[in-house]
Design a protein that fits this description.
This protein is about 15% helix and about 30% strand. The strands form four sheets. It has a six-stranded antiparallel sheet, with no helix packed on it. The longest helix has 17 residues. The radius of gyration is 19 Å and the shape is globular. About 40% of the residues are buried.
């Protein structure tokens, strides 16, 4: 759905995911809050951070550039480098038990860092950048297929949205052509913050039927593509939609009574 209302009260920054899943397999240690560096700059590839907790659920840091799984976007992978040069492979990143806590999941049988230790963080940048390009591409495509969104997923090699729409209204050639035409505009993206109350006053901003934007902090993050799209999302995105390049529609298929799945990939990537 295209943005047609007045611009909300805003605080801007580049970068940018939508919703988070929480791991709950056993009791949690004390609550830890992580500074989410990717919120201010999704292009950070390295940073330093201090270890604040190590437990069966993962490694928690005082700050991170690793994006945790959420809003359909897969969590980041990469390495944590110890002062002695030892590299701890991170195979997944997940949301923790509290708001803005992040779990860095190390590979099995990996030596764990000590609490208080300072590490160098390195994300798998080619993988993250592909996720950023595809995530932003889905936002653009959602303005071509104008229907309620019932689900979505972003992986490094492909992404998809599920729509509540009649199959006869979906044409792969048209979706691909019109999405690429919007991408070709080369619009800069912006992060916009609005209050919970402002979002309540503009329910049309929420396209997803099954998942609501995360609340609890008093404000909600939106991704703005001026003149094209405005919707809640906390994920990582490109600064300019021209960075997406072009997309191709891989397939359209039915996924149940109400779900019609449109799957896309980046044109410059090999087939998934």
């Amino acid at each position: 759905m295209r943005d047609g209302g007045p611009t909300p009260r805003i605080r801007r920054s580049n970068g940018g995911a939508c919703y988070h899943r929480i791991l709950r397999s056993s009791p949690w240690p004390r609550a830890v809050t992580t500074e989410l560096l990717f919120r201010a700059d999704a292009y950070l590839r390295t940073a330093s951070a201090r270890v604040v907790a190590v437990h069966e659920h993962g490694i928690e840091l005082d700050r991170t550039i690793f994006y945790p799984t959420g809003g359909g976007q897969q969590g980041d992978t990469g390495v944590l480098v110890r002062p002695n040069g030892e590299r701890i492979a991170i195979v997944d990143t997940r949301k923790g038990a509290t708001l803005d806590s992040v779990l860095h999941i190390a590979a099995p049988a990996t030596a764990q860092p000590a609490i208080g230790e300072t590490l160098t963080l390195e994300i798998d940048w080619p993988r993250r950048y592909a996720l950023m390009r595809l995530h932003t591409a889905l936002h653009v495509m959602s303005c071509v297929v104008v229907a309620p969104v019932t689900g979505g997923n972003i992986a490094p090699t492909k992404a998809r949205l599920d729509f509540d729409i009649d199959m006869s209204l979906l044409d792969a050639v048209k979706i691909e052509r019109e999405t690429n035409a919007l991408i070709a505009r080369g619009v800069e993206t912006e992060t916009v913050w609005i209050s919970d109350e402002e979002l309540d006053a503009r329910p049309e901003l929420v396209k997803t039927m099954s998942v609501q934007p995360p609340r609890g902090g008093g404000r909600v993050r939106l991704l703005s593509i001026p003149g094209i799209d405005l919707q809640p999302c906390g994920g990582t995105h490109v600064r300019n939609i021209a960075e997406i390049g072009t997309i191709r529609v891989l397939r359209i298929r039915s996924e149940g009574k109400r779900n019609r799945r449109v799957e896309i990939a980046l044109s410059d990537q090999p087939p998934p």
